[in-house]
Write a structure and sequence with these properties.
Length: about 350
């Protein structure tokens, strides 16, 4: 298959800094969309993959799955997109399209394994997929998203991971106007959870260990802030939440939060993937649930983007040049960003 070399930024080993590389992109096939990448968000998953924290990383790693760009060309079978259109690509670039999950529009749970935007199996060129820290990308039209032109384009990029990761559970568990919703943890995911829950009409409580985050949480749309280290405050809110969105990205004690749930209510984990312990009795006595959620499928992601267009919702971001990515990684791991880095890809192309 024909391919074209393009500039990219990636890591050659798990201990190496990211540096400029040349990678191959396939020719535009009949069902493909070729995209000139304008912006790419920086996700904590990028860092975990570069550093092989989860195992299985294939090198060189070219991260990036929060991609915003404009269409350069389309294949002969493509009718939904046209040249010059503003589009996005999130965490997936392919799936089997045959299993029940794919048929249900839940490609993220593809029973044969969805293909990640990076570090996935490249069925076309062989080897593994390369992400959005690059000049352009070629993606099957089924995994390309329409981006509303009225939004701040830079701030849209993190919606394609941080946004959909928080939107999907809010929708799946039917969060609605008047519900009392707690968002645990104020970071890249948490700040989007607050914005979405607020826009859906819920009463939003930011739950944090840091009193210093109260002002920012209220600016983002929280009605109230609950300091989880304060036992008196926690007792006041016990048994009162319709839904909890837990965005904490590391191992932590979830038992105190279970006590906040109403009978039959659910806490959904979207951050921590380490083993967690909890007291079974806390669930049994209130028929409560602890669940998990990944990103959303393509249909749901498009619904999120359309909702954002209607409600003028984007991520709070800090712009960086591609050449500053290693410093940005250090700042992300130190929680020194409000709330998401976005790379101006023009800095790579010049």
């Amino acid at each position: 298959m024909k391919s074209t070399e393009v500039k990219a930024f990636g890591a050659k080993t798990n201990t190496a800094d990211l540096e400029q590389l040349q990678i191959d992109r396939r020719e535009t096939l009949a069902d493909d969309v070729e995209i000139d990448i304008l912006y790419c968000g920086v996700c904590h998953s990028d860092i975990h993959t570069v550093r092989n924290d989860w195992g299985g990383s294939q090198y060189p790693v070219v991260p990036g799955h929060e991609i915003i760009g404009r269409v350069i060309s389309i294949g002969k079978n493509v009718s939904k997109f046209k040249e010059g259109q503003l589009v996005g690509v999130g965490c997936m670039v392919d799936s089997c399209q045959r299993c029940q999950s794919c048929k249900d529009g839940l490609e993220q749970y593809c029973e044969n394994g969805m293909v990640g935007t990076y570090n996935g199996k490249d069925e076309h060129l062989g080897g593994h997929t390369f992400g959005g820290y690059s000049e352009k990308i070629v993606v099957d039209q089924k995994f390309v998203l329409n981006v509303p032109e009225n939004l701040d384009t830079k701030g849209v990029a993190p919606l394609l991971c941080a946004g959909i990761t928080t939107w999907s559970p809010l929708r799946n568990w039917n969060v609605k106007e008047g519900d009392k919703v707690g968002v645990i943890g104020l970071g890249g995911l948490g700040h989007m959870g607050i914005k979405f829950a607020h826009a859906l009409g819920a009463k939003v409580v930011m739950i944090t260990t840091s009193p210093g985050k109260s002002e920012d949480a209220k600016r983002l749309g929280a009605d109230e802030v609950l300091i989880s280290k304060d036992e008196e405050q926690m007792a006041e809110h016990a048994g009162s939440f319709d839904f909890l969105l837990n965005t904490v990205p590391v191992k932590h004690d979830i038992n105190p939060y279970i006590g906040l749930l109403k009978r039959d209510a659910t806490m959904v984990l979207v951050g921590a993937i380490e083993p967690l312990e909890f007291h079974g009795g806390a669930l049994i006595m209130g028929r409560k649930s602890v669940a998990g959620s990944l990103i959303g499928g393509i249909k749901e992601t498009q619904e999120m983007l359309d909702f954002c267009g209607e409600h003028d919702i984007v991520s709070d971001i800090e712009m960086i040049d591609m050449q500053n990515i290693n410093e940005a990684y250090d700042r992300v791991t130190s929680n020194d960003v409000k709330y998401r880095f976005v790379i101006d890809m023009l800095s790579l192309k010049n």
